[in-house]
Design goal:
Strand content: under 5%
Helix content: over 70%
Order of helices and strands: HHHHHHHHHHHHHH
Structural class: mainly alpha
Number of strands: 0
Largest sheet: none
Number of helices: 14
Radius of gyration: 20 Å
Shape: globular
Amino acid sequence: MKLAFLCHIDTIRFMINSKTKGYISALFATMFMGSLGIFIKNIQTSPSVTTFFRLFISALLMFFVVVMQKDIKELKIVPSKNLVLSGAALSASVIFYIIAIQRTSMSNAVFLLYLGPVFASLAAFLFLKENLTSIDVLSLVLSVLGILFMLKFNFHFKGIDLYGTICGILAGFTYGMIIFFNRTIKSNVSLNVRSFYQFLFGSLIVLPFVIKDFDVKTVENDILILVAMAFVCGFLGITLMFNAIKRLPAVEYSVLSYLEMFFAVAFGVLIFNDNLELFKIIGGMLIIFSGLMQIFKNDILKKFSKT
C-alpha cells in the first residue's frame, strides 16, 4: 500500500516536472522564433533560401549535438510516417506563408497563419481524443482575438487574391499539422532525433525553391546573419517548440504559441522603435492572459467546480 502511494507521488512529480519543462520550452521557443523579424530586416536573401538555411543549418547543428553526445546510433531508426509528415508540414507551412504574403496583404497572411493552433487543437480533440475544456476554448478565442487586436483588425477579404488566400489557409493548416503530427510521434523517440529528421526533411522539401531563387552574391553578403538566424530561430526556437509539444497537450501549446506574435511585436517596439499603440497593448495582454489561463487551468477548473 505504501509502495503504491509512493509510486503515485513519483508519477505526479514527473507529470508536474514534465509540464513545467513544457511551459518553459514554449516560452523560450516563442521568444526565439519571435525574433525572426530582427534577422529578416537585415538580409536580402529570398524567403525560400532563408528558409532552407534556417532548416538545413539547424539539421547540421543537431547532427553535431547527437555526435557529441555519442547517440549517433539513435539516428539509425527508420523515421516513422508521422515524423516525415511533420517535417513536410514544417517546410510547407513556410512556403505557403511566403506565397500568401506575396499574393495578399500581410495582415491577411498573418491572421490565416495563426489559425493553425486552432486546427491543431481540433485535430487533437477529434483524432487523439485529447481533452478540450471550456477554459481551453475560451483561451483559444482570446488568443485569436489578441492577434486581431495586434493586427488592428486590418484585414479584409474584399477583392481578394483567391490563390493567395488559399495559400494562407494552407499555411495555417500545415502549421497546425506541425503541432498535431508531433503529438503523434512516439514518446520514446528522443528530442534530438525528432528534431534532426524534421529539420532534414523540411530542408530537402524546400530545396527545389532554393535552386530557383539562389543568388551566390546575396548569400555571401548575408551568410553571417543567415547562420545566426538559423541558430536562434531554427536550432533553438524550433527544437524547443518540439520539446514543448512533446510535453504538452496540443491545445495548451497552441495557446502558448501565440506568444510568438507578442514577442515579435515587443522586439519591433524595443529594437526598431515601432509605435506602441493601444491595439498592440490590448492584444498582447489578451495573449498573455490566455497563456496564464492555460498554465493555471487546473486551479481555475477546481475553483469553479466547488462553487
